[in-house]
Design goal:
Rossmann fold, 2 domains, alpha/beta, DNA polymerase, domain 1, globular
C-alpha cells in the first residue's frame, strides 16, 4: 500500500460546517505511537553501531534518538563513528530492522481508534521520522487501507523537531496551526509541534519517559491507547 502526497482536498460547504471538532487534522507519529516498534529499533541501532566498530549506545541513548531522521539519529547515537561510515551504518541498521519488522504490529486498539476518529470527520495523517520507502513498506503489513488522508516522512521534508512536516500538512489541508493536533511518543514530536505552533498530545507507552514532556506543554499525556482513544473522542 502506498500513501502518496495529496495535493488538494476540497470540501463542500456541508462538509466544512460538519467539522465542528476542536481539531480538523490529527497528525500521528508512527513508531512508538501507533506501531509497537521501540524495542526492535533500539536493538537495531545498537547492532548497527557494533557492526561498524562504534561504541554501542546504551538503551537510554538509543531510545532517545527514535523519531529523528535516520542519519541524524544514528550520528547522535554513535558520535565516535566518522561521517564517512554513515552510509554503512545506515545500511546495517536497515538490515537488522528489516530482518525483524515482520514481528512488529500495531498497538492493540489502534485500528478501532483510527476508525472512530475517521467516522467523526477528522482528517488523519502520519508525520514520521521514517523514510517514505520505510513507511510504505510497513503499511503493507497492517490493515490501514484508506484510513490516512496524508503523510509526511523525514526524507521528503525535514527530520524532527524541524516543523516542516506539520507545515506541509497544514498547507496541504488548508488548516491553521491551532486546528492541528500532533500526537507522539517522543520529545522530538512535541517539540516539532511547538515549533509549528500546533498543540500536541504525548503518549507514555513509546520511546520517551513522559516526565520529559512537561516543558513541552502537551494538552494531555496518554498512558495507553485506550486513554488516547477516549481523550481524542472527548476532546479532539
Amino acid at each position: 500500500m502506498s500513501l502518496p502526497s495529496i495535493s488538494n482536498h476540497p470540501l463542500s460547504a456541508g462538509q466544512k460546517s460538519a467539522r465542528t471538532r476542536q481539531f480538523d487534522l490529527l497528525a500521528f507519529d508512527w513508531d512508538g505511537t501507533l506501531f509497537d516498534s521501540t524495542a526492535i529499533i533500539t536493538r537495531s541501532i545498537q547492532m548497527a553501531v557494533r557492526d561498524v566498530g562504534g561504541t554501542v549506545p546504551s538503551d537510554k541513548e538509543a531510545v532517545y534518538v527514535i523519531g529523528m531522521a535516520l542519519t541524524q539519529a544514528l550520528a547522535h547515537a554513535a558520535p565516535d563513528v566518522p561521517p564517512e561510515k554513515y552510509p554503512e551504518l545506515g545500511a546495517r541498521y536497515r538490515h537488522h530492522y528489516t530482518a525483524r519488522q515482520n514481528d512488529l504490529s500495531l498497538f492493540a486498539g489502534v485500528i478501532e481508534m483510527l476508525t472512530e476518529l475517521k467516522s467523526r470527520n477528522h482528517w488523519l495523517a502520519v508525520a514520521t521520522g521514517k523514510s517514505r520507502q520505510g513507511l510504505n513498506s510497513v503499511l503493507h503489513g497492517v490493515e490501514l487501507q484508506g484510513v490516512f488522508d496524508g503523510s509526511r516522512t523525514a526524507d521528503e521534508t525535514a527530520g524532527k523537531p524541524h516543523p516542516l512536516m506539520l507545515q506541509e500538512l497544514m498547507a496541504e489541508f488548508d488548516v491553521p496551526a491551532d486546528r492541528v493536533l500532533m500526537i507522539g511518543d517522543t520529545t522530538h514530536d512535541l517539540q516539532m509541534a511547538l515549533n509549528a505552533g500546533c498543540p500536541s498530545v504525548g503518549v507514555s507507552y513509546g520511546a520517551h519517559e513522559h516526565e520529559a514532556f512537561h516543558d513541552l506543554a502537551p494538552r494531555f499525556v496518554a498512558h495507553s491507547v485506550r486513554e488516547l482513544h477516549d481523550w481524542l473522542v472527548n476532546h479532539g
